[in-house]
Amino acid sequence: MTGLVKKDLYLSVSMFKSYVVVAAVFAALTAFGIYDISFFVTYVSVMCIMIPVNLFAYDEQARWDKYAAALPSGRAGVVKARYLFTILICLGSLVFSLLLQLIVALFTGVQGQARTDLLLSGLLPAAYGCFMNAVLLPLLFKFGSQKGRLYLIMALGVGVGVIFGGLTGLKEMGIPLSELTLPLFVLPAAGLLALLPSYLISKRIFFHKDL
Predict the structure, then answer these.
(1) 107-115: which pairs have CB atoms within 8 A and are 24 or more residues apart?
(2) How many helices (H) and strands (E) would you count in the chain?
């Protein structure tokens, strides 16, 4: 199964490089005050979702599932590897987002509550990525990447609206993120827990899927 996770990592290298470059550009624009931080947070959240989804498209083009199901790890290994990879992407995006938020904070010279709010907003991408993947992965295992893209668009539309609108609304109401410290720390953990029932559903779906 470790080999299956490595396969996903190798496939995602080229995608990840381009996403990181774009994320760095958005971070720089945020540091210069051109974009609001909520825009950058939303982009990182979308990145958490697009990488696992694109892997389904690559696998379908190569008809990988039929081959992978015949490996010793079997269908269970295919599903488990995809979920482990998704967790790695979400955790990686969390670290990446927090580091860039810290760089932006140091570059702009924000202090006190403003810096705390900036860093706390970095928790949202991983949380959102976990929750959305928990919903989308079973659908992708069931319907494949082509039909699953419709659900992806719907999820992105709802998710982007919630994050971007939520951060903007809190800012307009004058509610700092530092007042929501506990919920913001709980969200990523809750997102990871949501992947457990999602994994069980995907495993059941893939076991009964005609390859």
Answers:
(1) 107/31, 108/31, 108/33, 113/176, 113/178
(2) 7, 0
Chain-centroid distance, C-alpha 93: 7
- Of the candidates 170, 79, 167, the one whose C-alpha atom is nearest the C-alpha of residue 123 is 167
**Is 128 within 8 Å of 50 (Cβ atoms)?**
no
Q: Which helix (H) or strand (E) holds 144?
A: helix 124-173
Tokens of 157: 């539309």
* Contacts (Cβ under 8 Å, ≥6 apart) of 47: 19, 23, 93, 125, 129
Domain-by-domain residue ranges, the chain? 2-207
pLDDT along the chain (211 residues), means of 10: 82 78 75 68 75 84 79 84 90 79 70 64 77 88 78 69 64 63 74 91 88 67
> What are the structure tokens assigned to 11, written together?
């496939």
Q: 63: how many CB neighbours lie within 10 A of its CB?
A: 10
Q: b/e for 154-179, b at 16 or more Cβ within 10 A? A: ebbeebbeebbeebeebeeeeeebee
